[in-house]
Structure formats: structure tokens, C-alpha cells
Amino acid sequence: MSKAKTLQTGHVGLNVTDLDRSLAFYREVFDFEVLAEGKDDGRRWAFLGRDAQLLVTLWQQSEGTFDTARPGLHHLSFQVESIDEVKATEQVLRGLGAEFTYQGVVPHGESAASGGIFFTDPDGIRLEIYAPTGADPAAAPTAGAPTCGFF
Predict the structure, then answer these.
(1) Does the record bear Metal-binding in its keywords (predicted)?
(2) Which pLDDT value is given to residue 29?
């Protein structure tokens, strides 16, 4: 018997500083539905997803901002079907005043067809939305390493 034969990511849990602010951001950017929510003082949380599938959990139990110098989450990435979807999401993010790592859609590496946008949520957590094709022929912002690796 092999262990974890059908392994796949279930959901990703993120610590946030202000649940209301994060809920507004993640719902607007990703069209997530609130599947469940805890509203007790000192124990606020939300389960977010689509079509009843849990994708992200938010836990209001942090202070400060995301620290890239500490071990833990590097970035959270979401795949969409087309570059047009990436660009539409970019416009939503610009309207929200989100911070971007690179300007516009960038490929995952030199001569790569896949690529997307890299940005942060209100707590500074690094996020990516990408499509498997359509990012070429733009130049990659990082030579000799994946675009999503060192940012």
C-alpha cells in the first residue's frame, strides 16, 4: 500500500491582522465566498472558497506585516485559464491600491509562456495569479532564476 497516493493541496491557512480588511480583499480579488466564519472576540476566522470547496482560511491572530526574512510561506499562487483573466484581476488590484512586485504580466522565466502578476495582500503576504500560456514574448524580470523565486 502506498501512502498518500492521491495527495493534493487541501487549503492554505493564512494569519492576518484584520479579518474584516482581509475578507474584503480576498473576496474582491478572488471572488471567494465565505463558507464559514467565527466571530467571537479573540477568535475570529473565515473559511473562503468557491462552489463549496474550501481554498483559503484566514485567522486573525497576528501583528505586524509578513516577514520574508523568516521561515514560512514564500508565496501563494493561483492558476487561472488565460492571461486575460490575469489582466482583469490586475485591474481590480490596481483599483484597490495593491502593491505589485513587477509591472504588469511577466513570464515565469526567460522564454516561458506561463506567467502572471505578483502582488501582496493587505498584510504583505506575497501572492501570484498566473496563466499557463500567454505571457510570452515579454522579458523575464529575473535572469537565471524563476520569476516567482526571489522577489
Answers:
(1) yes
(2) 98
